[in-house]
Write a structure and sequence with these properties.
Largest sheet of chain A: 7 strands, mixed
Oligomer: heterodimer
Order of helices and strands of chain B: EEEEEHEEEEEEHEHEHHEEHEHEHE
Number of helices of chain A: 22
CATH topology of the largest domain in chain B: Metallo-beta-lactamase, Chain A
Distance between the termini of chain A: 57 Å
CATH class of one domain in chain A: Alpha Beta
Shape of chain B: globular
CATH superfamily of one domain in chain A: DNA ligase/mRNA capping enzyme
Largest interface: A-B, 81 and 54 residues
Number of strands of chain A: 20
Radius of gyration of chain B: 22 Å
Number of domains of chain B: 2
Chain lengths: 548, 400
């Protein structure tokens, strides 16, 4: 645990990629495999199921620190991270230990889940009394599941590759599913990550492991430049960019697995797709998008969300919100890894397979034909009516790469411009992480009547916290402090003086929101310092953007 | 999974209203020895101000930081060790009377004396005695001795006027030896690896504390132009500082800089002045570095938790040691400190002030201290735009 806490401190104390990479490799080389196994799990984004109810943890920490609840809350608001707050507030340790990370996780942390409620307080207190301040930060971060330290999964992959002397892409492949929520990585699992590559490494083909997703890059250029930048459209496979859940469907040895892009196993969330997978031949991996499908078209993402949030999927929900897999790539076929084949070839094999399987819940993502870029650009104008985000441009000779790479081929996402509206900032809340203590999270409102109408009010409709530069954020923070009307715990209501152009990807009716609409991915496009509050947009303008 | 929907209003606002902190400000009482006026803290029977922010006839100045020592007053009273800084910053010709610690004068029936505040060289608490009442205005203070100025002394009083820059229990400073061991280790490692160690710190107070405390045998020490004049003031007052170099000094070359500890004001961050150091490591020394968020926002490699202000336990101890039944909080986490002291059974209130511009009080104060207003006057020669958060509005004060 001490070595892992030191690694955390080293990673946290540096802004240099090289220094972080060196620290990771140093740790991995020195750590026992059983500890390294868990270190990789957490650094690569793994999170065990909730170990302790957050409320209980807060209460115990507050008691141990001898503080009233309001003062604990003020402290938390200033720090912006619960684990860090607790680590800062607890009295110094009065005991010690020399256990490694794996022992801590397996013998102490994981058993907390499901432990009898009356035993939890004493167990927790005994544990943190043994930990030094550095270790406590890590310990509480593991418990609260907010373990982030500015290291990307790619960096972890690279460190493992360097330590094992294995190709980074092979490591990425081996890491797929490693951080699964129920995973219990041990020394053997770690050894397998860094083992020399076997001549015929077939690990992926014998388990439910997916492949690392190939990710697209944004493309925003003037259509007039497309020929110069991309060549003629004939060199590209063009598809719609669906607004659903990116997923791989794996069928091997009679079993089906469905993985989301976040490497979460979602098979049980979509039983109809799991059943569909039964119809596929063994040794098949499809890449595509899960969408709600009705009347031969994709429905808004908001519909899909109705299913994501549910713990139990009743027959009514399955009936009301039917999903399909829109398949666009075949990455494993008859047990063979097809990723090195050109896009064209993979697509041909995919189409052939889908014809053979002929299942209503497995639909090929249509290929869009166009003679020239201007024609495709005109067609793209219809994206919003079709309920898609734009187009995907895939080079016909592209291999299926690993993650966000461009070395063996490229996928571009050519998205339509976001919808936008000028809205008024009405509430502000302090941010977290590097924005802790700054007011950076905002609620925006529009007017409920046209300019000049009597008694018109501002109706909140969206929250956003991205899109501003650090400098703008600091200026907005200052205005918020000066124009605060009331503070409610961490939230402030402000005198309406700030207007922002908000962008969002979609809009849908919602009964859960007072404004009657819900917008998707709202963010600030620009600060309209030129615009008086009275000229901000209205609910009517917003409603006019709703799809028919 | 694809991202979650983020639209929608905030339904729980009304339910949270009961968490609002109580109003901290209170109207003055008839016999108060110090009251808040638009010009600054004012002593009615003595007809003088303490650290006023607008020009007045008579000003008692607790210390030389620019938010406490402002230009334009007709008469200044300060500790003898503040003289050098005050004349350097406010003009050699200011009308300045100085006192030693513990030395008292009578002014219109008010007995005035200065007592060590442990904040920076010459920093003082102001003790006022009149009509059987004793008030102490502490200015800024730090309770742990650091060897560069007279250590803080608690002064018994009826009413204590305190700062609250770090008035939250999350602020607990590491002990001085541990702090310097960290700084030394960082510098030593950089020097071994052939990298300059650029440490951003406030030019007056913090820089000299670092100079006094580091192991100067590790390598040469180079200081920014904003720092050296203050070193001279400290040396003149008899504080031992290791030899310091300017980048323009003969013999200061690339090879030397690679082993050097470089002290520069925060406003130098991101300026061309730093180019000469090549691939340097950087760090920031401030109490705000206690939090990961502020540390990362600073964009430096390392943050050293080092403050000229009292931490939470220091504030508690200092307030307790005065025996005061009434406490007035001037700046920092005012609302939090007032509520806490009231819950501890003290008669507490807040004063709205304009302190917190120069030193650490200008960092983003979590409990609402606002952001800094950019480089302080003495950092002016660190040309170039301030790379950190730009000037922002005033800090939150006593009123809710």
């Amino acid at each position: 645990m001490k070595a892992f806490a030191a690694l955390y401190r080293d990673l946290d104390a540096s802004t240099s990629r090289l220094a972080k990479q060196a620290a990771l490799q140093r740790y991995l080389r020195a750590a026992p495999h059983e500890d390294a196994a868990w270190a990789v799990y957490f650094l690569a984004g793994g999170k065990p199921r909730q170990l302790v109810p957050v409320k209980l943890l807060r209460l115990l920490a507050q008691e141990a620190a001898g503080l009233p609840e309001w003062l604990f809350e003020e402290s938390y608001q200033a720090v912006g991270d619960l684990a860090e707050t607790i680590a800062l507030l607890l009295p110094p340790p009065d005991d010690a230990h020399d256990l490694g990370l794996a022992q801590w996780v397996q013998a102490h942390l994981l058993p907390l889940r499901g432990a009898p409620a009356d035993e939890l307080p004493e167990r927790l207190r005994t544990q943190w009394r043994r930990l030094a301040p550095d270790e406590r930060l890590v310990y509480f971060k593991l418990i609260t599941g907010a373990f982030r330290v500015g290291v990307s999964k790619l960096q972890v992959t690279q460190a493992l590759a360097a330590v094992g002397g294995v190709d980074a892409k092979r490591v990425a492949q081996r890491l797929m599913g490693y951080t699964h929520i129920g995973a219990r990585p041990d020394a053997g699992a770690y050894a397998a990550l860094i083992a020399p590559e076997a001549a015929q490494e077939r690990e992926a083909q014998t388990s439910g492991q997916p492949y690392p997703f190939f990710l697209a890059h944004p493309f925003n250029a003037d259509v007039a430049q497309f020929d110069a930048l991309l060549g003629p459209p004939a060199g590209w496979l063009v598809e719609w960019k669906w607004d659903g859940i990116r997923a791989q469907l794996v069928k091997r040895a009679g079993q089906v697995w469905l993985w989301s892009r976040g490497e979460e196993l979602v098979t049980e969330r979509f039983p109809e797709l799991a059943a569909m997978g039964e119809a596929l031949p063994d040794g098949t991996v499809l890449d595509g998008e899960i969408v709600v499908w009705r009347d031969a078209r994709a429905q808004p993402f908001a519909d899909l969300q109705k299913r994501i949030g549910r713990k139990t999927l009743g027959p009514k929900l399955l009936r009301d919100v039917p999903v399909v897999l829109l398949a666009y790539d075949l990455i494993e076929h008859e047990g063979r890894d097809l990723r090195a084949l050109p896009q064209d070839k993979r697509r041909a094999l995919l189409d052939e397979l889908l014809r053979e399987v002929n299942h209503p819940l497995l639909i090929p993502s249509p290929v869009i034909e166009g003679d020239d870029w201007p024609q495709l650009a005109r067609l793209r104008e219809s994206a919003r009516e079709r309920g898609v985000e734009g187009m995907m441009l895939k080079r016909r000779d592209a291999q299926y790469g690993v993650g966000r790479t461009k070395d063996v081929g490229v996928w571009w996402k050519w998205k339509i411009d976001p919808l936008s509206i000028d809205a008024v900032l009405v509430y502000a809340q302090r941010g977290h992480g590097r924005r802790a203590s700054l007011y950076t999270d905002y609620t925006f409102a529009v007017w409920d009547g046209p300019p000049g109408s009597a008694d018109r009010k501002l109706v909140p409709f969206a929250k956003a916290y991205s899109g501003l530069t650090d400098a703008e954020m600091a200026r907005v923070d200052a205005v918020i402090r000066k124009t605060t009307v009331e503070s409610f715990g961490p939230v402030r209501s402000v005198k309406p003086t700030l207007v922002f152009e908000l962008g969002f990807e979609g809009i849908a009716r919602s009964t859960r929101h007072k404004s009657g609409v819900a917008v998707r991915f709202p963010r600030m496009l620009r600060w309209r310092e030129d615009k008086p509050v009275e000229e901000a947009d209205t609910l009517q303008t917003l409603e006019a953007l709703l799809p028919p | 999974m694809a991202g979650a929907l983020r639209g929608g209003a905030r339904p729980t606002i009304a339910a949270m209203a009961d968490e609002t902190l109580p109003p901290a400000a209170a109207p003055p009482r008839p016999d108060d020895l110090v009251i808040a006026r638009p010009e600054g803290l004012y002593c009615p029977p003595g007809d003088f101000y303490i650290d006023p922010w607008k020009p007045v006839e008579r000003a008692v100045v607790t210390h030389g930081h620019s938010d406490h020592a402002r230009p334009g007053h007709a008469h200044y009273l300060a500790h003898a060790d503040s003289e050098g800084v005050l004349r350097q910053r406010l003009g050699a010709d200011i009308t300045l009377q100085t006192l030693a610690y513990g030395e008292a004068i009578e002014h219109r029936g008010v007995r005035v004396s200065l007592h060590p505040a442990g904040h920076v060289l010459g920093s003082a608490q102001v003790r006022l005695e009149h009509g059987g009442r004793v008030w102490v205005a502490s200015g800024d203070y730090k309770t742990e001795p650091d060897g560069t100025c007279a250590p803080f002394e608690p002064v018994p009083c009826d009413t204590f006027i305190t700062e609250s820059t770090f008035g939250l229990p999350i602020y607990r400073w590491p002990a001085q030896p541990q702090l310097f061991a960290e700084i030394d280790a960082w510098w030593r490692r950089n020097a071994e690896e052939g990298r300059a160690s650029v440490l951003f710190c406030y030019a007056f107070g913090k820089a000299q504390r670092i100079l006094h405390g580091v192991d100067a045998s590790i390598g040469p020490v180079v200081v920014h132009g904003a720092v050296e004049p203050l070193n001279a003031v400290y040396r003149a007052a008899g504080v031992a500082l290791p030899p310091t170099l300017r980048v323009t000094d003969p013999g200061v070359d690339a090879a030397l800089l690679k082993r050097a500890l470089v002290l520069a004001p925060p406003s130098a961050q991101g300026t061309p002045w730093l180019r000469r150091f090549g691939q340097y490591a950087d760090a920031f020394a401030s109490g705000w570095m206690q939090l990961r968020g502020t540390r990362r926002r600073r964009g430096v490699d390392r943050g050293f938790v080092m403050s000229d202000h009292a931490d939470w336990p220091g504030l508690e101890r200092a307030i307790g040691a005065t025996g005061a039944q009434r406490v007035i909080v001037t700046h920092g986490s005012v609302a939090v400190m007032v509520r806490w002291l009231r819950e501890c059974g003290l008669d507490a209130q807040g004063f709205a002030t304009e302190y917190g511009e120069e030193d650490e009080a200008s960092a983003p104060s979590p409990a609402g201290g606002g952001l800094g207003r950019g480089p302080a006057a003495d950092d002016a020669d660190a040309a170039g735009p301030h790379p950190d958060l730009p000037p922002a509005g005033e800090g939150e004060s006593a009123s809710p």
